[in-house]
Write a structure and sequence with these properties.
It is a single chain. The chain is mostly helical. Helix content is about 60%, strand content about 0%. It has 18 helices and no strands. The longest helix is centred in the middle third of the chain and has 29 residues, at about 180-210. The protein is elongated. The protein starts with 14 loop residues before the first helix and ends in an 8-residue tail after the last helix.
Protein backbone atom coordinates (compact mmCIF):
# COMPACT_ATOMS: atom_id res chain seq x y z
CA UNK A 1 0.00 0.00 0.00
CA UNK A 2 1.31 3.46 -0.87
CA UNK A 3 2.71 5.65 1.88
CA UNK A 4 0.52 8.45 0.57
CA UNK A 5 -1.88 7.73 3.39
CA UNK A 6 0.55 8.59 6.17
CA UNK A 7 2.92 11.48 6.74
CA UNK A 8 6.56 11.63 7.71
CA UNK A 9 5.81 13.46 10.95
CA UNK A 10 3.58 10.55 12.05
CA UNK A 11 0.40 12.61 11.59
CA UNK A 12 -2.26 10.23 10.29
CA UNK A 13 -4.29 11.22 7.27
CA UNK A 14 -7.99 11.79 7.81
CA UNK A 15 -10.54 9.78 5.85
CA UNK A 16 -11.23 12.92 3.78
CA UNK A 17 -7.57 13.18 2.83
CA UNK A 18 -7.51 9.51 1.90
CA UNK A 19 -10.58 10.06 -0.28
CA UNK A 20 -8.78 12.96 -2.01
CA UNK A 21 -5.62 10.89 -2.60
CA UNK A 22 -7.60 7.92 -3.92
CA UNK A 23 -9.45 10.23 -6.31
CA UNK A 24 -6.18 11.70 -7.62
CA UNK A 25 -4.76 8.20 -8.05
CA UNK A 26 -7.86 7.31 -10.08
CA UNK A 27 -7.37 10.41 -12.27
CA UNK A 28 -3.68 9.57 -12.79
CA UNK A 29 -4.54 6.04 -13.92
CA UNK A 30 -7.54 6.79 -16.14
CA UNK A 31 -7.17 10.36 -17.44
CA UNK A 32 -4.83 11.99 -19.90
CA UNK A 33 -2.44 14.38 -18.07
CA UNK A 34 -4.21 17.46 -19.51
CA UNK A 35 -7.49 16.41 -17.89
CA UNK A 36 -5.82 15.62 -14.55
CA UNK A 37 -4.09 19.02 -14.59
CA UNK A 38 -7.40 20.79 -15.29
CA UNK A 39 -9.06 18.97 -12.40
CA UNK A 40 -6.11 19.70 -10.11
CA UNK A 41 -6.43 23.39 -11.05
CA UNK A 42 -10.11 23.39 -10.21
CA UNK A 43 -9.44 21.88 -6.79
CA UNK A 44 -6.38 23.82 -5.62
CA UNK A 45 -5.89 26.93 -7.77
CA UNK A 46 -9.44 28.05 -8.60
CA UNK A 47 -10.72 26.28 -5.46
CA UNK A 48 -14.19 26.25 -6.92
CA UNK A 49 -16.87 23.60 -6.61
CA UNK A 50 -15.72 20.35 -8.13
CA UNK A 51 -17.48 18.11 -10.67
CA UNK A 52 -17.64 15.34 -8.05
CA UNK A 53 -19.56 16.73 -5.03
CA UNK A 54 -18.10 14.15 -2.61
CA UNK A 55 -14.54 15.32 -3.36
CA UNK A 56 -15.40 18.99 -2.88
CA UNK A 57 -17.19 18.10 0.36
CA UNK A 58 -14.02 16.30 1.51
CA UNK A 59 -12.01 19.46 0.73
CA UNK A 60 -14.47 21.53 2.75
CA UNK A 61 -14.13 19.15 5.70
CA UNK A 62 -10.32 19.33 5.49
CA UNK A 63 -10.44 23.15 5.51
CA UNK A 64 -13.12 23.32 8.23
CA UNK A 65 -10.69 21.43 10.49
CA UNK A 66 -8.45 24.53 10.17
CA UNK A 67 -5.16 22.80 9.25
CA UNK A 68 -2.00 24.81 9.80
CA UNK A 69 0.06 25.79 6.76
CA UNK A 70 2.55 22.94 7.06
CA UNK A 71 -0.16 20.26 7.23
CA UNK A 72 -1.95 21.64 4.18
CA UNK A 73 1.35 22.01 2.31
CA UNK A 74 2.02 18.32 3.00
CA UNK A 75 -1.41 17.44 1.58
CA UNK A 76 -0.75 19.59 -1.48
CA UNK A 77 2.77 18.22 -1.98
CA UNK A 78 1.52 14.65 -1.76
CA UNK A 79 -1.30 15.42 -4.19
CA UNK A 80 1.23 16.71 -6.73
CA UNK A 81 3.39 13.62 -6.41
CA UNK A 82 0.46 11.24 -6.90
CA UNK A 83 0.19 12.57 -10.45
CA UNK A 84 3.93 13.04 -10.96
CA UNK A 85 4.87 9.52 -9.86
CA UNK A 86 2.41 8.08 -12.37
CA UNK A 87 3.81 10.23 -15.21
CA UNK A 88 7.41 9.43 -14.31
CA UNK A 89 6.76 5.81 -15.28
CA UNK A 90 5.89 6.75 -18.89
CA UNK A 91 8.47 8.85 -20.82
CA UNK A 92 5.90 10.44 -23.15
CA UNK A 93 3.90 11.71 -20.16
CA UNK A 94 6.87 13.28 -18.35
CA UNK A 95 6.54 16.53 -20.30
CA UNK A 96 3.35 17.19 -18.29
CA UNK A 97 5.28 17.52 -15.02
CA UNK A 98 6.38 21.15 -15.68
CA UNK A 99 2.78 22.01 -16.66
CA UNK A 100 1.53 20.80 -13.28
CA UNK A 101 4.23 22.60 -11.32
CA UNK A 102 3.70 25.83 -13.28
CA UNK A 103 0.00 25.80 -12.34
CA UNK A 104 0.95 27.44 -9.05
CA UNK A 105 2.02 30.55 -10.97
CA UNK A 106 -1.45 30.85 -12.57
CA UNK A 107 -4.09 33.13 -11.09
CA UNK A 108 -7.61 31.78 -10.37
CA UNK A 109 -10.21 32.23 -13.10
CA UNK A 110 -12.65 34.15 -10.92
CA UNK A 111 -13.22 35.57 -7.46
CA UNK A 112 -13.58 33.15 -4.56
CA UNK A 113 -17.23 32.41 -3.79
CA UNK A 114 -16.83 30.96 -0.27
CA UNK A 115 -14.65 30.99 2.81
CA UNK A 116 -13.37 27.51 1.86
CA UNK A 117 -12.22 28.80 -1.53
CA UNK A 118 -10.45 31.80 -0.01
CA UNK A 119 -8.67 29.65 2.54
CA UNK A 120 -7.53 27.06 -0.05
CA UNK A 121 -6.19 29.84 -2.28
CA UNK A 122 -4.30 31.44 0.61
CA UNK A 123 -2.72 28.14 1.66
CA UNK A 124 -1.90 27.19 -1.94
CA UNK A 125 -0.30 30.58 -2.54
CA UNK A 126 1.96 30.23 0.52
CA UNK A 127 3.00 26.76 -0.72
CA UNK A 128 5.03 28.44 -3.49
CA UNK A 129 7.35 29.91 -0.84
CA UNK A 130 8.32 26.55 0.64
CA UNK A 131 11.29 24.25 0.06
CA UNK A 132 8.77 21.61 -1.05
CA UNK A 133 7.73 23.75 -3.99
CA UNK A 134 11.34 24.61 -4.83
CA UNK A 135 12.05 20.86 -4.96
CA UNK A 136 9.10 20.42 -7.34
CA UNK A 137 10.46 23.20 -9.55
CA UNK A 138 13.90 21.57 -9.67
CA UNK A 139 12.27 18.28 -10.64
CA UNK A 140 10.15 19.99 -13.33
CA UNK A 141 13.27 21.49 -14.94
CA UNK A 142 14.39 17.95 -15.70
CA UNK A 143 11.62 17.65 -18.28
CA UNK A 144 11.55 21.12 -19.82
CA UNK A 145 12.54 21.09 -23.47
CA UNK A 146 14.15 24.40 -24.38
CA UNK A 147 12.26 26.24 -27.12
CA UNK A 148 15.54 27.66 -28.34
CA UNK A 149 17.67 24.54 -28.82
CA UNK A 150 20.58 26.76 -29.83
CA UNK A 151 20.57 28.68 -26.56
CA UNK A 152 24.12 28.78 -25.27
CA UNK A 153 24.75 26.82 -22.08
CA UNK A 154 26.40 29.91 -20.60
CA UNK A 155 23.16 31.89 -20.99
CA UNK A 156 20.96 29.34 -19.22
CA UNK A 157 20.39 29.56 -15.49
CA UNK A 158 22.31 26.98 -13.50
CA UNK A 159 19.02 25.47 -12.30
CA UNK A 160 18.21 24.34 -15.85
CA UNK A 161 21.32 22.15 -15.93
CA UNK A 162 20.29 19.91 -13.03
CA UNK A 163 19.50 16.96 -15.33
CA UNK A 164 23.26 16.74 -16.03
CA UNK A 165 24.12 15.86 -12.43
CA UNK A 166 22.36 12.71 -11.14
CA UNK A 167 24.33 12.91 -7.88
CA UNK A 168 22.30 16.03 -7.01
CA UNK A 169 18.88 14.45 -7.47
CA UNK A 170 18.24 13.02 -4.02
CA UNK A 171 19.29 16.15 -2.13
CA UNK A 172 17.45 18.39 -4.61
CA UNK A 173 14.15 16.51 -4.94
CA UNK A 174 13.77 14.67 -1.62
CA UNK A 175 12.89 16.25 1.73
CA UNK A 176 11.66 15.06 5.11
CA UNK A 177 8.06 14.84 3.86
CA UNK A 178 8.87 12.76 0.80
CA UNK A 179 6.98 9.48 0.76
CA UNK A 180 8.78 6.18 0.23
CA UNK A 181 7.17 5.85 -3.20
CA UNK A 182 8.39 9.30 -4.27
CA UNK A 183 11.86 8.46 -2.96
CA UNK A 184 11.95 5.21 -4.94
CA UNK A 185 10.94 6.99 -8.17
CA UNK A 186 13.64 9.64 -7.73
CA UNK A 187 16.30 7.02 -6.96
CA UNK A 188 15.26 5.10 -10.11
CA UNK A 189 15.52 8.30 -12.12
CA UNK A 190 18.99 8.93 -10.70
CA UNK A 191 20.14 5.41 -11.54
CA UNK A 192 18.79 5.65 -15.08
CA UNK A 193 20.49 8.99 -15.79
CA UNK A 194 23.73 7.86 -14.14
CA UNK A 195 23.84 4.66 -16.19
CA UNK A 196 23.27 6.63 -19.41
CA UNK A 197 26.05 9.05 -18.53
CA UNK A 198 28.48 6.23 -17.69
CA UNK A 199 27.73 4.45 -20.97
CA UNK A 200 28.38 7.67 -22.90
CA UNK A 201 31.57 8.35 -20.94
CA UNK A 202 32.78 4.75 -21.42
CA UNK A 203 32.31 5.07 -25.19
CA UNK A 204 34.22 8.34 -25.21
CA UNK A 205 37.11 6.88 -23.19
CA UNK A 206 37.26 3.75 -25.38
CA UNK A 207 37.41 5.65 -28.66
CA UNK A 208 39.90 8.18 -27.31
CA UNK A 209 42.31 5.34 -26.50
CA UNK A 210 42.14 3.74 -29.92
CA UNK A 211 45.21 4.27 -32.21
CA UNK A 212 43.07 6.56 -34.34
CA UNK A 213 40.81 8.70 -32.22
CA UNK A 214 37.23 8.86 -33.43
CA UNK A 215 35.48 12.19 -33.56
CA UNK A 216 32.13 10.45 -34.04
CA UNK A 217 31.79 9.77 -30.28
CA UNK A 218 30.49 12.87 -28.59
CA UNK A 219 32.07 14.29 -25.45
CA UNK A 220 29.28 13.78 -22.86
CA UNK A 221 30.42 16.69 -20.68
CA UNK A 222 30.55 20.48 -20.93
CA UNK A 223 34.34 20.32 -20.65
CA UNK A 224 36.64 20.76 -23.62
CA UNK A 225 38.09 17.52 -24.95
CA UNK A 226 41.53 18.28 -23.54
CA UNK A 227 40.06 19.12 -20.12
CA UNK A 228 38.06 15.89 -20.11
CA UNK A 229 41.05 13.82 -21.22
CA UNK A 230 43.22 15.40 -18.50
CA UNK A 231 40.53 14.67 -15.89
CA UNK A 232 40.17 11.03 -16.99
CA UNK A 233 43.93 10.58 -16.87
CA UNK A 234 44.19 12.15 -13.42
CA UNK A 235 41.32 10.17 -11.90
CA UNK A 236 42.26 6.82 -13.42
CA UNK A 237 46.01 6.98 -14.12
CA UNK A 238 49.11 7.38 -12.01
CA UNK A 239 49.60 10.76 -10.36
CA UNK A 240 52.27 12.20 -8.07
CA UNK A 241 54.36 9.40 -6.61
CA UNK A 242 53.53 6.95 -9.40
CA UNK A 243 50.28 5.64 -7.87
CA UNK A 244 46.65 6.01 -8.85
CA UNK A 245 44.34 7.87 -6.46
CA UNK A 246 42.63 4.56 -5.77
CA UNK A 247 45.97 2.93 -4.86
CA UNK A 248 46.77 5.83 -2.54
CA UNK A 249 43.40 5.44 -0.85
CA UNK A 250 43.90 1.70 -0.33
CA UNK A 251 47.34 2.34 1.14
CA UNK A 252 45.94 4.97 3.52
CA UNK A 253 43.10 2.66 4.53
CA UNK A 254 45.67 0.06 5.55
CA UNK A 255 47.46 2.75 7.56
CA UNK A 256 44.16 3.54 9.34
CA UNK A 257 43.72 -0.10 10.32
CA UNK A 258 47.17 -0.12 11.95
CA UNK A 259 46.82 3.25 13.71
CA UNK A 260 46.24 3.09 17.44
CA UNK A 261 45.28 6.71 18.14
CA UNK A 262 42.85 9.12 16.56
CA UNK A 263 45.50 11.84 16.76
CA UNK A 264 47.87 9.74 14.62
CA UNK A 265 45.05 9.05 12.18
CA UNK A 266 44.49 12.81 11.71
CA UNK A 267 48.22 13.38 11.21
CA UNK A 268 48.22 10.68 8.56
CA UNK A 269 45.10 12.12 6.94
CA UNK A 270 46.78 15.51 6.72
CA UNK A 271 49.79 13.98 4.92
CA UNK A 272 47.49 11.93 2.65
CA UNK A 273 45.54 14.99 1.51
CA UNK A 274 48.40 17.48 1.20
CA UNK A 275 50.53 15.02 -0.76
CA UNK A 276 48.87 16.19 -4.01
CA UNK A 277 48.62 19.90 -3.12
CA UNK A 278 51.11 22.24 -4.76
CA UNK A 279 53.69 23.08 -2.08
CA UNK A 280 54.01 26.77 -2.96
CA UNK A 281 50.24 27.21 -2.53
CA UNK A 282 49.86 24.96 0.48
CA UNK A 283 52.60 26.58 2.54
CA UNK A 284 51.00 30.04 2.23
CA UNK A 285 47.86 29.41 4.28
CA UNK A 286 45.86 26.38 3.25
CA UNK A 287 48.00 23.63 4.78
CA UNK A 288 48.11 25.45 8.11
CA UNK A 289 44.34 25.94 8.10
CA UNK A 290 43.76 22.32 7.15
CA UNK A 291 46.06 21.07 9.91
CA UNK A 292 44.42 23.38 12.48
CA UNK A 293 40.95 22.21 11.37
CA UNK A 294 41.90 18.55 11.74
CA UNK A 295 43.52 19.03 15.13
CA UNK A 296 40.35 20.67 16.45
CA UNK A 297 38.06 17.98 15.08
CA UNK A 298 36.64 15.66 17.77
CA UNK A 299 39.81 16.29 19.78
CA UNK A 300 38.43 14.66 22.95
CA UNK A 301 38.93 11.35 21.16
CA UNK A 302 42.62 11.91 20.32
CA UNK A 303 43.84 9.03 22.47
CA UNK A 304 41.15 6.58 21.27
CA UNK A 305 41.62 4.11 18.45
CA UNK A 306 39.98 5.48 15.28
CA UNK A 307 36.73 3.75 14.36
CA UNK A 308 34.16 4.14 11.57
CA UNK A 309 32.22 6.76 13.52
CA UNK A 310 35.30 8.94 14.12
CA UNK A 311 36.54 8.55 10.55
CA UNK A 312 33.19 9.49 9.00
CA UNK A 313 32.79 12.40 11.43
CA UNK A 314 36.23 13.67 10.45
CA UNK A 315 35.39 13.45 6.74
CA UNK A 316 32.15 15.38 7.28
CA UNK A 317 34.04 18.15 9.08
CA UNK A 318 36.63 18.18 6.29
CA UNK A 319 33.99 18.58 3.60
CA UNK A 320 32.38 21.42 5.56
CA UNK A 321 35.76 23.13 5.65
CA UNK A 322 36.85 22.46 2.05
CA UNK A 323 33.54 22.84 0.17
CA UNK A 324 30.72 24.56 2.09
CA UNK A 325 29.08 24.35 5.49
CA UNK A 326 25.33 24.75 4.98
CA UNK A 327 22.69 26.64 3.00
CA UNK A 328 22.22 28.86 6.05
CA UNK A 329 25.98 29.53 6.20
CA UNK A 330 26.98 29.23 2.53
CA UNK A 331 30.58 30.38 2.90
CA UNK A 332 32.77 28.64 0.36
CA UNK A 333 35.81 30.89 0.02
CA UNK A 334 38.20 27.98 0.70
CA UNK A 335 36.73 25.94 -2.17
CA UNK A 336 36.70 28.91 -4.57
CA UNK A 337 40.28 29.81 -3.64
CA UNK A 338 41.44 26.22 -4.14
CA UNK A 339 39.83 26.09 -7.59
CA UNK A 340 41.51 29.34 -8.63
CA UNK A 341 44.95 28.29 -7.40
CA UNK A 342 45.15 24.54 -7.94
CA UNK A 343 42.71 24.06 -10.80
CA UNK A 344 39.44 22.14 -10.87
CA UNK A 345 40.90 18.68 -11.51
CA UNK A 346 43.32 18.79 -8.56
CA UNK A 347 40.67 20.10 -6.16
CA UNK A 348 38.10 17.48 -7.16
CA UNK A 349 40.95 14.99 -6.80
CA UNK A 350 41.30 15.98 -3.13
CA UNK A 351 37.58 15.39 -2.58
CA UNK A 352 37.77 12.08 -4.43
CA UNK A 353 40.61 10.97 -2.16
CA UNK A 354 38.33 11.53 0.85
CA UNK A 355 35.55 9.45 -0.71
CA UNK A 356 37.89 6.68 -1.89
CA UNK A 357 39.16 5.88 1.58
CA UNK A 358 35.79 6.54 3.28
CA UNK A 359 32.98 5.50 0.95
CA UNK A 360 30.37 6.47 3.54
CA UNK A 361 31.34 10.11 2.95
CA UNK A 362 30.11 10.08 -0.67
CA UNK A 363 26.46 11.02 0.13
CA UNK A 364 27.75 13.87 2.28
CA UNK A 365 29.94 15.14 -0.58
CA UNK A 366 26.89 15.04 -2.85
CA UNK A 367 24.99 17.05 -0.26
CA UNK A 368 27.73 19.72 -0.22
CA UNK A 369 27.47 20.17 -3.99
CA UNK A 370 23.69 20.25 -3.75
CA UNK A 371 24.01 23.18 -1.33
CA UNK A 372 26.32 25.00 -3.75
CA UNK A 373 23.88 24.28 -6.59
CA UNK A 374 20.90 25.63 -4.64
CA UNK A 375 22.88 28.72 -3.64
CA UNK A 376 23.62 29.60 -7.28
CA UNK A 377 20.66 28.02 -9.10
CA UNK A 378 19.26 31.39 -10.21
CA UNK A 379 22.57 32.59 -11.68
CA UNK A 380 23.38 32.24 -15.36
CA UNK A 381 25.81 29.38 -15.89
CA UNK A 382 28.39 31.64 -17.52
CA UNK A 383 28.69 33.69 -14.35
CA UNK A 384 29.41 30.61 -12.22
CA UNK A 385 31.35 28.58 -14.77
CA UNK A 386 33.85 27.61 -12.07
CA UNK A 387 31.00 25.73 -10.36
CA UNK A 388 29.74 24.19 -13.61
CA UNK A 389 33.27 22.89 -14.33
CA UNK A 390 33.52 21.59 -10.77
CA UNK A 391 30.24 19.67 -11.06
CA UNK A 392 31.19 18.30 -14.48
CA UNK A 393 34.59 17.22 -13.15
CA UNK A 394 33.03 15.62 -10.06
CA UNK A 395 30.73 13.65 -12.39
CA UNK A 396 33.80 12.25 -14.15
CA UNK A 397 35.61 11.55 -10.88
CA UNK A 398 32.70 9.67 -9.27
CA UNK A 399 31.77 7.78 -12.44
CA UNK A 400 35.30 6.50 -13.07
CA UNK A 401 35.95 5.52 -9.45
CA UNK A 402 32.61 4.88 -7.72
CA UNK A 403 30.31 4.05 -10.63
CA UNK A 404 29.82 1.17 -13.02
CA UNK A 405 32.68 1.97 -15.38
CA UNK A 406 35.17 -0.92 -15.43
CA UNK A 407 38.62 0.67 -15.48
CA UNK A 408 40.19 -2.66 -16.37
CA UNK A 409 38.70 -2.30 -19.86
CA UNK A 410 40.74 0.80 -20.61
Amino acid sequence: MSNYLSTKNNRKSTKEEQLLYQHLQHLARHQEPEGSIDNFKTLFIDASEYFIPEIWQAMETIIDADPDEEDFHNILNRSCYILINRWLQTPQLQKSIPDLVNLFQVKPNRLATSWTSKRIRTLTSSFTETEKYLALQRLARMFIREVEENTKIEDKTLGKLINRYPYLYENSFINEDTSDEQREEIIKMRQKEQEKYEVDLSKYITYQRLPRKSNSVENPTLMKNKELNDAIQYFTGKVDGGQTLRNQAEKFRCYCDLTYSYRSFKDGLYEYLTDTIDYSYGKRKFNHKLYHNLQNTLSKNNSNKPNDFLILGTCKKLLNFIVIDSLEQPKHFVFYDLINNLGTIRVIGILLKIVLFCRQAKPYLEQKFSILFKHYQGSTSGKVWWLVKSMETLNVALSTNCGGINLCCF
